Amino acid sequence: SPNWHDQAAHFGHDDKTVLWGNLLWDLRMSTPIHRFDRFSDAGQSQFHPNGLEVILNSEVWDLRTYKLLRSVPSLDGTRFIFSHTGDVVYSWLLHAPAPEPGYDSASALSASAAGLSRRHLSGHHHPIQTAFKVLDAHDYRDITTINIERNIVDMSISPEDHLLATISIDPTDQCTSSCAARLYEIGRKRSLDCDSDLEDEEDEDDDDDDDDEEDEDE
Q: Phi then psi for 211, rounded to 5 degrees?
């Protein structure tokens, strides 16, 4: 049976429809207008920014015909967010900090409410346990995988799509005291920038050597 604590309601782009789990509601009607097939209780459900698709865990459904369009393995069992332009999807495996010493059983319930299935809590076999994926939001192909070597709790994108923030915890010490915020610059290829800097330094060194040789000849 579905974990109802794991569901979040989302407005459609026409402000007339709401998606909650696999149920699609028209706010002008008293009952759901469609119930999508759901192959897993894991993951999340959300409208695509293009207004034409609905994503339920790893399945993409046509909002006009209610037919299954494709399955996206990189979204299976993950949380995901779209860039503000709707061109990119960022997905990660949901983790939550373990209760601090002295917490009562309500902490365990809050973890359940955060959408943590037993598979998510263990996370041992998931390919992005300590990483997040970047996907093309048009065809859902993988663009890259960024391993931050920490378990991601949440993620947010700046309004201009220039910066990506992650909240993460230490995999070996999953308590709130190990939480950390990291900031990433979207679109910047750090390795190439570093290579370019090194090349510039080498060019400058070569120029200096040439100048020294000319001075010696004189």
A: -65, -40
Rg (CA), the chain: 23
- Separation between Cα atoms, residue 151 and residue 94, nearest integer Å: 8
SS3 for 145-176 is EEECCCEEEEEEECCCCCEEEEEEEECCECEH
The string of DSSP letters for 71-93 reads E-GGGTT-EEEE-TTSSEEEEE-
Distances (CA, A) of 195 to 2, 190, 201: 50, 9, 10
Alpha-carbon dihedral angle through residues 92, 126, 8, 154, given to the nearest 10 degrees: -30
Q: Please write the tens of the pLDDT for every residue from 55-81.
A: 999 999 999 999 999 999 999 989 999
Q: Where are the alpha helices (DSSP H) in the chain?
A: 106-113, 118-122, 190-217
* Total-model pTM: 0.70
